[in-house]
Every structure is written in structure tokens, then in C-alpha cells.
Amino acid sequence: MTIFLILAPFGSFTLLMLVTSAEISLFTSAAICLAVIGIDVYRGRSIKMLGAGSVVVFVTLGAYVALLDPNLSHSAVKLTVDVGVLAISLGSLIIRKPFIMQYALEEVDAETAKLPGFLKAVYLITWAWNGAFVLMIIGNALAIYVPGLPIWSSLVVAFAARNSAAFFTTWYPQYRKAKYGAPPANALPGTN
Asked: Which of its termini does the chain have fewer beta carbons within 10 Å around, N or C?
């Protein structure tokens, strides 16, 4: 799984929100999501629910800001994006298809994907991302509802939460490999 491609739209969104309007940030991030989807399709991979759902979140919110409420605060825009991404993730769990599964299945062989530890790892990593999304929501809500709180504080929370989830996503499979032994020769670490 290429963490960089997964996080590119969200990192770009966060950076753009610092230097430009919400509309430009949202529509540019939607375009980056579409580019990532295009890269996946070009490589013969599936269209990911996180990417497709994020396009919908970015475009819908961008249209709302552009057409109905151009004065929506940056914190409210970031909060709405984070709530949208959390909804995608929780929705994937409700339908018993954790969004991480799509990425993981492209990285492991069929035998590894059938192991019970693989499914456990996928669910645990998905919950780690849910925790990160909740922390980002809290950071943005505090920026809105606590007057005088420095604007950079929500950025620090978002950066720490997102990077912690990304670190866990790469660390946990390695931890499982070390704990439970080597998987089949062509499997990724941590999927046994």
C-alpha cells in the first residue's frame, strides 16, 4: 500500500487551506483524488472507496462553499472534511468491508488474505485510522468553539493524528510478522 498516494489529497488539502481559499483547496484536493484513482486504474487496481468517497466529500463541500456559503470558516471546512472521511471509514466497517481491505488485498497473495490474522490486522488498522479521524475532528471543533485557541493547534493535532495512523499502518504488519513468525514466501509482513 502506498501511503503517500493515499494521503496526498488530504495533505494537499491541509496545506492549501493555509495559503488559499476553501474552494480552491477543496476542488484541487478532489482533482488529486481523481488523479490517484486514475493511477490505480492505470495500474490495473480497483477504485478505492476512500478515494471515491473523498471525491464526493471534496466536490460536495466545494460546491456548498462556492454556491451557498463562501464565508464558511476554514476550521468548519476542515471539520466537515474530517467528518466526511470518518463517515466513509465507519460506513466501510458497517458493511464489513473496511476501507483498508482494498489496499491490503492488492499487496498480499490469496493465501495470506485468507488467514485470520490478516483480517484482524485490517480491522485494527482501520480502527486506528478512525481514531485519527476522531482526533482531527476534535482538533477542528476546538478551533471553532474555543476562542483564542491558536489556529496552528488544530494543524498540530491533525498532523500528529494522521502521521501516527500512517506509522501504525506500516508498523503493525511488521510487528505481527516478528510476533507470529514468517508468513508464506510471497506475502507481506504481518499478514499471517
From this structure: N
